[in-house]
Amino acid sequence: MNEIFGLIASFGVVASLLMSTWQGRELARQTAINNGIAGATHIYNGLERIQHFEGFIISEPWLHAHFYGGAAIPADEDQRVRVLALARILADVVTYGLMITSLNPQMRGYDGWKNFALVVRSTSPALVQVVHEHPEWWPSLMAHWTANPEPVG
Predict the structure, then answer these.
(1) With helix as H, strand as E and coil as C, how does 75-132 read?
(2) Alpha-carbon distance 132 to 47, whole Å?
(3) What share of the chain is helix, strand, coil (3-state, %, to 5)?
């Protein structure tokens, strides 16, 4: 009789281990799916932020040169304020993109934000100025720029 109980107990342990293994695999699979969805959501949110920023340029095309054309910060006070305010918005957007890329394992290898951060550094003196004035406000952006110095020459 004890042998039967021992056999039943052993079967129960094996079944429990098999069930635990299956649950672990399912949990890992579900986690990977959720991380993928989160990564896609973050990419979408970042693109929405860029599109919102671009909306300012669409409504006032003269701004394009200050963010993508290398134009200096305007001397006119009203234009200067607008460009610097938009530079802070762009710094927020790029920092968001860099942060979500580094935090989500599904986004590792997606270098769009890293590349964009380097491009706008070279095309927007206003962005460079606001970030250098307060690097602690945009630590991810500042760290990325520091790790990737501009080529000399």
Answers:
(1) CCHHHHHHHHHHHHHHHHHHHHHHHHHHHCHHHCCCCHHHHHHHHHHHHCHHHHHHHH
(2) 25
(3) 85, 0, 15
Give tens-digit pLDDT for 36-52.
777 778 778 888 999 99
- How many CA atoms lie within 13 Å of 86's alpha carbon, on the beta-carbon side? 29
Whole-prediction pTM: 0.78
pLDDT digits (tens, 9 = 90+) for 111-120: 888 999 999 9
Instruction: Give the separation between CA 144 and CA 4, rounded to whole angstroms.
Output: 66
The residue to which tokens 């769009």 are assigned: 112
Question: For residue 114, what are its two tokens?
Answer: 């890293």
DSSP designation for 61 = G
